[in-house]
């Protein structure tokens, strides 16, 4: 059945391949004559590179090339690009594909070897001699900002790598008139996306055609192509980027890295394809780090609980050089910190501080989880101060349904029914029996609590205008192509990337319903810049459904009209009298008169003589370039049930429930899975994950025994409730949601812990809530 496919709980068409070992991941790609590369990475956090001696490595049997940072620099025409560049003329602390003169974080690449295989390349790496002159390392925000701190970039006056301000309304006046002012300081640890499949590239330079062919595990093939062109000085048409199956991206594979440039330069140097895949240990220092921030805020409110102002500073603890998305994740924290609330006056300074750590970049949720933690903490703190229920404060400050479109400090929110979403969550929690369970546990002396958070997810990015205004130098439009072939089969060519989120299934559902064909008559092709349409943004910011899906819907609607025009001509009836379902076109009210889509395909491609109406072009293909007029704003209310062992400080999640609204849902099964996966990552950030650095700045996190991601044992049962407030400006009404699960999890868990420990007066203002941190908070609560 094609009717009703949008909204159907269809199992993912991607899964049989993935689950039966038929997927091709980057490391499965083997090009003829391919070499494998390895990098020498600095173990020091900060040092001058005095001398790199590559002679012994170059002489090692099986080695084809050894490159230093200076060699790579000489082979490119630009340093590592930063797409976040609000002021193109402002100097930014950018890096090079391999360090030149100075290393600024442990793990930074210093030299690269291409050899017959990875083991030989690693052996040769050990033969490279580097003379370093160690420099004082700066690994904390406080050290970096201290007067007289060692400077990471001599051409900058201090260690501030970038700044931004987000503001709206008269903040001073709001605070002058406030009945209540609350202040708080928050700290969030460093995390990384840690996808199961680490990053990797196979680069092949063709000296005859001067073309670069890249296989890359990326979420943004077109963006890579643009940036690669910029660095190598190549026209983008000379670069092809192909993406094999991606074993999780989670934002880390959105960013642009030096390794892909190094592989390309090695291929050019050796005349052979070169593969470079990071191992797990490298992944912890070479894939973007994220989340580490210190945030200070003040909230102004009236005695009745109306929030009138919010101000403060977001300090992003950046790395030694800017990552490709620059300050943008920290800016996004500031840009979304008013969340679902109508706060008339707002000012947030954003300060990106350089430290001798890995570059800061994308991770699912971007800046939103921190923004959510802050606004939800402040709402609960205001409720405590006023002696009222936190949900009463939420309800008082929610943006009303009648207030949409609503201008938040940066984004215009499209639609939302926040109070209904909160009620949906509360009803589900009551139905699940959590309040009764928690109170009987407490009667037994157990510390069990329930916590809530309400989030908005600004998603479905573009339009291009807003992307550019936010300082990003790339577009926000999508192009989708849909074709019916001569046998009536449908192929969708999308610029969106599949990285495990089920986008092929969802796009197939949109195409199948719109064109009236069964789902298995649709093939979705992605991940090849030579054959797929341009999507300069790529897949990130939860945009595949709201931008790609909407573009496809429009293209498929036009294609369906063409199909019906041709069918009408063949059946000698008006196209208005035709319906199409399950690949068969029939005349309304005359069930006998039918025509298959294959027959129309045949007419459009093969039997053109008289088969097409006058003036109708052959072939059945439509493309749509869609630059949305706005972002989409989905929302959700998360409830967490936890128990706390007050002796050990261990928090055990017992239940996790999300009431969610992402407009028209294409596939509720996928959306549920996305919420579960995001929530699992949110639980990781709330309780376990942190990248550690030692006192001298050494990177301590080397494996999953150091970096604890939640496993099936740690995640509780999940439940999801749906409601739907379609995005009115988006064809189809879809809103993005791929990051929602992670956004609200931290705050909900923190509030559940606070609730469980209400007798101990614990408040949580930093993540993760590790056992030692929680025991300290319990002691501190007892001391108050
Ligand atoms: N969907 C839907 N109906 C909607 C909205 C979405 O059925 N109204 C479906 C979509 O079709 C898609 C999924 O839900 O299959 C997520 O859609 P969307 O919100 O459009 O997000 P994207 O497809 O753009 O995915 C990106 C988003 C981000 S930014 C990260 S990071 C992320 C994520 O989603 N990384 C993931 N989910 C991931 N899931 C997996 N398994 N692996 C990753 O790397």
UniProtKB/TrEMBL annotation:
Q: Which InterPro entries match?
A: Ald_Oxase/Xan_DH_a/b, Ald_Oxase/Xan_DH_a/b_sf, Ald_Oxase/xanthine_DH-like, AldOxase/xan_DH_MoCoBD1, AldOxase/xan_DH_MoCoBD2, AldOxase/xan_DH_Mopterin-bd_sf
- Name the Pfam families for this protein: Ald_Xan_dh_C (PF01315), MoCoBD_1 (PF02738), MoCoBD_2 (PF20256)
Kindly state which keywords UniProt assigns to this record, in alphabetical order: Molybdenum, Oxidoreductase
Q: Aldehyde oxidase/xanthine dehydrogenase a/b hammerhead domain spans which residues?
A: 20-136
Q: What are the boundaries of the signal sequence?
A: none
Q: Which SUPFAM superfamilies match?
A: CO dehydrogenase molybdoprotein N-domain-like (SSF54665), Molybdenum cofactor-binding domain (SSF56003)
Q: By its UniProt entry, which SMART domains does this protein fall under?
A: Ald_Xan_dh_C (SM01008)
* Full protein name: Xanthine dehydrogenase family protein molybdopterin-binding subunit
